[in-house]
């Protein structure tokens, strides 16, 4: 197999592995609060929102050290170990205990930081400036198939049910645990590239370290990766992109946890309210996959760069937020187990709710494919630190959003996303214009996004 063929194979395996793991994890996150609401009449007294806040809070802090960990053990093994911790978190729901639930939340926060740093490193190692847009699209589209499969199962299994029994819960989470483990095993199929740099290395560091893999040299690489992360954090481009990244963290919280909870709390949806959570996840996944395919796989046909895609993303999201504001009761995110009988500005419509799910996924793919692309382009030599900073900002904002989701009415959550999204779009445009100027200065063709 040629070098390019091997790299494409690695990207596909990377995407399929993440698809399996996040089929399990995203489905888990989508139904966690609904399942927990049914558990809170027992000895279990956890909160899905609080768990997710812990996960993303720990994830954000762990991104300070994740480049160093990836530098020491390598991206492949880092992803394998992280996948095991994802599986353990999902398995907690088979027989929930409050202490195990929150302990697993801390552990998966650390694992997620390492997993996404290693993913960014692997994606960049197997791409160049001509293929980063395509490969980002392939990875993103494969990853988002996870929203289809897991939520389709939930939709079919929970159709017509207003209460989730213990048997229903165990069946779902045993299946999700096995799916996550399959994805973890697939990481072993990724083939190592020759003559690739370790995370955080530059040419001068390589001269010092040479080919040695001793413990001392690995530690030097880890320290170099940590220093590089701190340095990159304060560059103009990274600070500007952090506003855009912050927006993706808020949106991630909303569509992966809050919006499904809102749908499941609307009593006017009748006996379908719980199964609609799964159907909503499917429509989010369709939007994500469509966006990944169009704006990643077909990127070579665009000569106008990343900005039009991001502009489309923010417009699509603003339409979705407007429709959600009119369609969903204001107290839906914090409704009790009995649900809510309130009505917003229209009688709640299942069709409008599913349309909004699709728009949320499509807009999210616009932002994430372009962020992956521009990070891989700007920081091809420092991919692990750059992607660690990306996940640091995204996850800390997701943690904050999960925290306030326990208390804020729907209108305030939507308003926050509108404001941050507006400024995040402007800052992305600024960085992209700089990237276009850099390409023009090198005499390169500005034909990929």
UniProtKB/TrEMBL annotation:
The keyword Transit peptide does not apply. It comes from Oreocharis arfaki. This is UNC93-like protein MFSD11. Its main location: membrane. It is found in: Membrane. GO terms for cellular component: membrane. The lineage of its organism: Eukaryota, Metazoa, Chordata, Craniata, Vertebrata. It holds the Pfam family UNC-93. Keywords: Glycoprotein, Membrane, Transmembrane, Transmembrane helix. The keyword Membrane applies. The chain crosses the membrane at residues 7-26, 46-65, 100-118, 138-158, 170-190, 238-256, 276-297, 309-328, 386-404, 410-431. Belongs to the unc-93 family. It is a multi-pass membrane protein. PROSITE patterns: PROKAR_LIPOPROTEIN (PS51257).
